[in-house]
Amino acid sequence: MSYEIFETKERILAENDNSAERTRQALKENKTFFINLMGSPGAGKTSTLLHIIKRLGSKYRIGVMEADVESDVDAKTIADTGVRVIQLHSGGLCHMDADMTSRGMERMGIEGLDLLIMENIGNLVCPAEFEVGADLRLVVLSVPEGDDKPLKYPLMFTVGDVVLVNKIDAAPAFDFDIEAFKPRVLALNPNALFFPISAKTEEGIDEFCSWLEKKIDERRAEYEAD
Amino acid sequence: MSYEIFETKERILAENDNSAERTRQALKENKTFFINLMGSPGAGKTSTLLHIIKRLGSKYRIGVMEADVESDVDAKTIADTGVRVIQLHSGGLCHMDADMTSRGMERMGIEGLDLLIMENIGNLVCPAEFEVGADLRLVVLSVPEGDDKPLKYPLMFTVGDVVLVNKIDAAPAFDFDIEAFKPRVLALNPNALFFPISAKTEEGIDEFCSWLEKKIDERRAEYEAD
Hints:
The structure is a homodimer. Chain A is α/β, with parallel strands linked by helices. Chain A has a single domain, classed as P-loop containing nucleotide triphosphate hydrolases (Rossmann fold, 3-Layer(aba) Sandwich), CATH 3.40.50.300. Helices cover 41% and strands 18% of the residues of chain A. Chain A contains eight helices and seven strands. Chain A has helices at 8-30, 45-56, 73-79, 98-108, 149-152, 154-159, 178-186, 205-225; strands at residues 33-39, 62-68, 84-89, 115-119, 136-142, 162-166, 193-196. In chain A, helix 3 (73-79) links the parallel strand 2 (62-68) and strand 3 (84-89). The longest helix of chain A has 23 residues, at 8-30. Chain A is globular and about 60 Å long. Chain A binds chain B through residues 40-42, 68-71, 73-74, 92, 94, 121-126, 129, 142, 144-146, 148-149, 151-155, 167, 170, 173-174, and chain B through 40-42, 68-71, 73-74, 92, 94, 121-126, 129, 142, 144-146, 148-149, 151-155, 167, 170, 173-174.
């Protein structure tokens, strides 16, 4: 008797890639730059997002998808800024996959948006496994979490394009050594970029937002040229 | 045509319960008190664990299972204290289920241990879904993570018996309101207990360890009486 071996996880990831491709097409049609914002619970994803909106909101039309297991505390905060926002509930799941992301985009509507940001579920493990079709994978790691996190959660720092090292104002109070942290990330992803920031004191926020603005303009120019 | 509806998740959780029961039997045979230590990456699980070992290591024979996606940095730290320790790798998974826990215990050997502690993978979502057969579900939540976390990660605070509010020395630097935090947890689990601690300054550690000691002695007396 012959039988089939069904690689469930491979199948799930293949389907995920299809959904990510659908998202990329939608982004291209709308000339929208898409950021997948990831990090631990409490790393400072929402407060960083607020600074991005404040700095870039007059230049770009911004939309935000707030993903959470439950609650809508973050969506409320973001809605107060006046940008387009939707709260996505994962129904117990610990990450957003490409299909959930694509459905969220369809539900909110990305027409007319220059910049779309999805705040993923606070988790250093699972969201890293699911490519959602973003132009930028932005990881927020906060100083109190410790400089050893790339050793323990390597996939997140392998897929992350940029690491925002947040709460840098609290560095003296915690044993966080950014010079030890950086090579641990670069060993996983030699192209990773770092911005030490403080969403509280706003240190480093302008530098990051200037970099991001350039990146968005480059990508949108590519869309125009296509 | 009739067809089957297979509730995969229910089946997985039912099998998980069987494995948890196997673990409870092993704990009973060995009169071992078992703690499932959970929390976000960088909340301070390992440093709290070191304090427990220091306070209770002369009274109890302690064993530690360090669960990580990768690396063995925590196991190395724990091994330096001289207690029995094993590093468990989850192979990419974001939590330890009951079967992985039970296999870890068999591999390390819990014979002669009074106290067994498993440091789960840093994650506020998935580990909460899997009952591993522990006597105590101990959650470490650190002040920099924010007092809104029970709203966003309700299951963890529903299953947690005790919440250690760590890095309490840093409270003035962060907007953490413990009086706002507690009712959010109690709404999910009215029996939850709280200990504000600082693994850095050792504030509150003695109080928690005294409480834990009493709890361990009570449980072991029950085993003796059986």
